[in-house]
Each structure stands twice: as structure tokens, then as C-alpha cells.
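Running this now, will post back.
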Amino acid sequence: MDLRGLVPVAVLLVGWEAVSRSGLTDPRIVPPLEGLLGLLRVEVAQQSLLANLAASVVRDLTGFAIGASIGVAGGVLLGLSPLASVLLRPSFDVFRQIALFAWIPLIAMWFGIGEASKIVFVALAAFTPTLINTVEGTRSASLRLVEVGTLLRYRRWQMLHAIYLPAALPSILTGVHLALIQSWLATIGAEYFMTAGPGIGTLIIEGRDRFQMGQTVLGMILIGVVGFLLNRIARAAEHWLLRWRVA
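Update: finished.
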């Protein structure tokens, strides 16, 4: 890892500490870093921070798994079936123009404001990028390979396994990577707008309502750290799964 990438973070931390210690702002609004570290120790000792973090991560991964799986399956169907593409693609193109957060009132009406509605919302966020990239990937298969498979009388599942999926894998993984990022953002959004239950979003809202900006800032830092780690994990997994392309 290039340590130069940490320079902006270090500058931000130094600037934050300077502002909080300068007396120009209320420390309740811009808390010093020492206060944030103390709050972190307290939250960890009380296990409330870990409980909120675990709830958000489990919620995120569950919704992501559901949405990405449906997206890949739907993408293969739309990519390989002309009939399905004619019947379903126009509706999907309209569907994906609707802003993600515009679905919250409808989801809340159908599923309430509990865990189910949050997972549905996260799954919806993961579904769209996965499906789009899977469609593009399956359609990128070499026509020559498809002709060879036809001459060898491959069955449909053999064509899918031997030709279409290998050709689509890079695009599918790109979609899954994007879906993982979108899912984490959607998780925090769902917790912010549907506040029932634990989660990092709930932690932030509680800090705002109690005018404890340290708690809010701590939650924001956790969102960034978890998002960074998820992105790194997705990138490493993508590189590992595509290692055969550069071998």
C-alpha cells in the first residue's frame, strides 16, 4: 500500500484537531480526536458499537447476496433469451430510472419498517448493477466459440457453462463489485430512513438527536472504514477469480 495515499487523511485529522482545539468552535459540534477515541473505548466496552456494526454488516451482506443472485440470474436470462429481452428489457429500463430512495415509501408500505424492508431495499440496490453487467457480459461471448459449440452439439447448459459464463465472468464480477458498494450505501440509507432496529445508521441518528456529535462522527468514520474494506475485499476477490486471464 502506497503510504502517500494516507497524506490527505493525516491532513484532515490535523486540521480537525486544530479547529477543535482553537476555541473557535463549540467542542460539542467539532469534538477533539481524544474525545472520539474515548467514546470509541466506551462504546466497545459496552459492546453497543460492535452490536450496531454487526447488525449493519449482516444486513448488508444478506441483501447483497439476494440482490446479486437475482441480478446474475436475470442478466443471463435477458442476455441469452431474445424473447425475454423483448418482453422484459423495456420494463427494466423504466424501472432503473427510478431513484433508489424513491422506493422507500412503497417498500415500507409492503414490508413495514423492520428488518425485512431494509433487506429488500439493499437487495434492490444490488440487483440493478449486477443485472446490467451480466447482460453485457453474456452478449460479449465470441461468435466463433458459439459456432463451435453449436457444431459440437453442446446442450444449452453446456453452452452456458463452457462459453457464455467464462466470457461474461469479468463483466459479472464488475457488476458484483459495484453491487457490493451500492449495497453498503443502501444499508446506511435504509437504517437512516427506517430507524427501527440496531445499525450504524441508527447510531448516527441517536447521536444527532442527543446532540452528541462525537457519536455521529464515529458512526461516519465506521461507514467509511467498512466501505473501504469491502471495496478492497471485492477487488482482491475479483483479481483472484480472474487470475486465469493473465496466467
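The two ends are 23 Å apart (CA to CA). More later if anyone needs it.
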